[in-house]
Design goal:
With 228 residues, the protein is α+β, with helices and mostly antiparallel strands. The protein has one domain (5-226). Helix content is 29%, strand content 27%. The chain has helices at residues 5-16, 52-59, 75-85, 152-155, 180-202, 213-219; strands spanning 24-26, 29-32, 37-38, 47-48, 65-72, 93-101, 104-115, 120-127, 133-141, 223-226. The strands form two sheets. Strands 4-9-8-7-6-5-10 form a seven-stranded antiparallel beta sheet, with helices on both faces. Helix 3 crosses helix 5 (180-202). The chain starts with a helix and ends with a strand.
Length: 228
């Protein structure tokens, strides 16, 4: 489910380049400008809050079946999406989960791996058939600090967001003191999911299609995650 460490480091560079607080790297050591010292292993966490299946059930609690599909980006489509979200990323494919009841699509979900301050966090973003964010669930947090983005008090801010919203700190997202990089990273990931689903599933079908018939023809067979 997780990408390689080298891919994560590439993502880290892409996200951190938008920040004025770049870490100073010395070999395998990471210097923290706030602590004024190199970080130790004990400074980092590995907190697993839920599995992929648990997250899917939380994001789509009423759906009867969830199926997985691979989105592949051409160079042209990737450039278009990067222009829409405002930052570049190394991935050229993403896994999408489609919840359905009978022939009706209930919604979509996508897992994101984006860098907090130094390390990647893994979370799932839920989107309905109109392109609106319905939920964000944190699966794994690995950084030294910033895990407050897991709380519903914080991530409820993403509920109702669409591609038309900036989804940025000090615009429509309230920051968490001491967790700015995690907030910025999660916000960027939510925006990317909304744009990807808009580009691949909503715009071609006429914005907000809730039927699955055209998807089988256009995208091929699905892989079942749970349900029949």
């Amino acid at each position: 489910m997780l990408t390689t460490l080298s891919a994560f480091r590439t993502v880290a560079l892409a996200v951190l380049l938008t920040s004025s607080t770049l870490p100073v790297l010395a070999g395998e050591k990471i210097w923290d400008n706030e602590l004024r010292r190199f970080l130790k292993d004990d400074d980092f966490k590995y907190e697993e809050f839920m599995t992929e299946e648990e997250a899917l059930k939380a994001v789509m609690p009423k759906t009867q079946q969830v199926r997985k599909e691979l989105i592949r980006l051409t160079s042209e489509k990737k450039e278009l999406i990067e222009q829409r979200i405002g930052w570049k990323f190394p991935e050229d494919s993403f896994e999408l989960y489609i919840g359905q009841t009978g022939d009706k699509i209930d919604g979509y979900a996508m897992i994101q791996h984006t860098i907090g301050k130094y390390k990647p966090m893994t979370y799932m973003v839920g989107v309905d058939t109109k392109g609106t964010c319905t939920d964000v669930e944190l699966l794994v947090f690995r950084d030294a600090k910033g895990g407050e983005v897991r709380t519903k008090r914080f991530n409820a801010q993403y509920d109702g967001k669409t591609v038309s919203d900036p989804i940025r700190i000090n615009k429509d997202i309230i920051n968490i003191s001491g967790a700015t990089m995690s907030v910025r990273s999660m916000s960027a990931g939510v925006k990317r999911v909304l744009v990807l689903i808009d580009e691949f599933y909503l715009k071609p079908a006429g914005l907000g299609s809730d039927t699955i018939s055209s998807r089988k023809t256009d995208k091929g067979l699905f892989t079942s995650i749970f349900g029949n």
